[in-house]
């Protein structure tokens, strides 16, 4: 397994993490592992939802009207 060090963590966050771990009956290290795992899993599920809604076999075909080409701005004026 890999390891990770977190530097420059402010004391307020560290204390809140310590209290949260104690409430869950976990070590701080295990609490952080679970927080990171939930965070990543949440992002993956959002990606899967988006893929299901807008993936290649799903979604909506939009019919866009044709517009005439615009005239570029003359920046020399």
Question: What's the gist of this structure?
Answer:
The chain is mainly α and 77 residues long. 53% of the residues lie in helices and 0% in strands.
Record field, number of beta strands:
0
Radius of gyration from the CA trace? 25 Å
Low-confidence stretches: none
Number of helices: 2
- Tell me the β content: under 5%
Order of helices and strands: HH
For this structure, the CATH topology of the domain at 11-54 is Arc Repressor Mutant
Largest sheet entry:
none
Helix content: 40-55%
Structural class: mainly alpha
CATH class of the domain at 11-54: Mainly Alpha
Q: End-to-end span in angstroms?
A: 64 Å
Overall outline: elongated
Q: From the 3D coordinates, which CATH architecture of the domain at 11-54 would you assign?
A: Orthogonal Bundle
Mean pLDDT: 81
Structure explained in plain terms:
This protein is mostly helical and 77 residues long. It has a domain at 11-54: Orthogonal Bundle (Arc Repressor Mutant), CATH 1.10.1220. The chain is 53% helix and 0% strand. The chain contains 2 helices and no strands. It has helices at 11-24, 28-54. α1 (11-24) crosses α2 (28-54). The mean pLDDT is 81.
Features:
77 residues, mainly alpha, Arc Repressor Mutant, 2 helices, elongated
């Amino acid at each position: 397994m890999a390891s990770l060090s977190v530097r420059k963590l402010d004391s307020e966050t560290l204390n809140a993490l310590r209290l949260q771990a104690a409430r869950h009956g976990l070590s701080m290290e295990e609490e952080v592992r679970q927080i990171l795992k939930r965070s990543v899993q949440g992002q993956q599920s959002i990606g899967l939802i988006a893929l299901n809604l807008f993936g290649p076999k799903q979604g909506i075909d939009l019919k866009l009207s044709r517009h005439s080409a615009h005239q570029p701005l003359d920046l020399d004026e």
